[in-house]
Request: fold
Amino acid sequence: DGEAYANLLNVLAPEHSNPSTLAVKNPLQRAKLILEHADRMGCRRYLTAKDIVEGSPNLNLAFVAHIFQHRNGLSTQTKEISFLEVSPDDTQISREERAFRFWINSLGNSTYIDNVFEDLRNGWVLLETLDKLSPGIVNWKIANKPPIKLPFRKVENCNQVVKIGKQLKFSLVNIAGNDIVQGNKKLILALLWQMMRYNVLQLLKNLRFHSHGKEITDADILQWANAKVRISGSQSRMNSFKDKSLADGIFFLELLSAVQPRAVNWSLVTKGVTDEEKKMNATYIISIARKLGCSIFLLPEDMTEVNQKMILTLTASIMHWFMKQPVEEKASGISDSENGSQSETISNSTLDDSASDSSIEENGNI
Reply:
């Protein structure tokens, strides 16, 4: 009936409100007044008055998303401060911290963390996370449970974290437990990235029953995504997880359409030429992936700036979702035998440089 939209727009943009909107009895006429209000706010129309009255899910979702983009409660002053005082490196670190924090909290540990640089320093949550990634790998007899008052007890926990990381073949050269206790941001992010990546690859490995125990590599994920898009009839391709052409979002929209043909409403997709169009596509991709049930921890900016780590996790999440679906429900895809033959052609390296350059290299001595 449009009442929710009318109330929302009156709160967000009272300067453009029309007192008669809520007084109108005809839902279609009210919907027209709502769209006029949105136009005065500068929101481009994604839908017609009829779409509002009929409750079109996708078009209403896009409309609300566009309203949020224009009026999201973030003050101009806050944005000015962020541009003046926060360096690009700090912004990147903040986004990665957020992604890893969401991932860790999604695992259901005993402690909910608000900041990975502060809440992981005693090593306990890291040990819990590692135990979920590889059950039984933590020696709980020598672990120190919070609250921990003595600093060296925290170091003992973090030393075990590093030791387990090396068992799992993480790249942890010149990193010690004390680096985590001291809150070294780059080292903590490097460790968390390897833990998150290990988790994703293990989930895929558990589903790849036809791989006969073969380790899943970044190259496997890359090749799977390209194969899915190619088989769907598209010429799009990503050369690596840092391929700058991914910024427009078209490849991932085609990948999502390939794994679930009804997922993408192409009338909502932009050409991805301008920064705004790229961000709109990225937001739509994240929305679709979440609606399908994929575990998504990235932001639209991670896509438009092609953050290779987050692009890898997005692709792997889509792959994991697809492979969990019953065979008869897969809209299109590669048979197990085809996947198996593909896997045999791919190098069994732990990390394929052509697919994804790990952020570990960026940290110098790690």
Summary: The mean pLDDT is 83. The chain has three domains: 3-70, 88-207, 218-324. The CA atoms of residues 229 and 255 lie 5 Å apart. The first helix runs from residue 3 to 12.
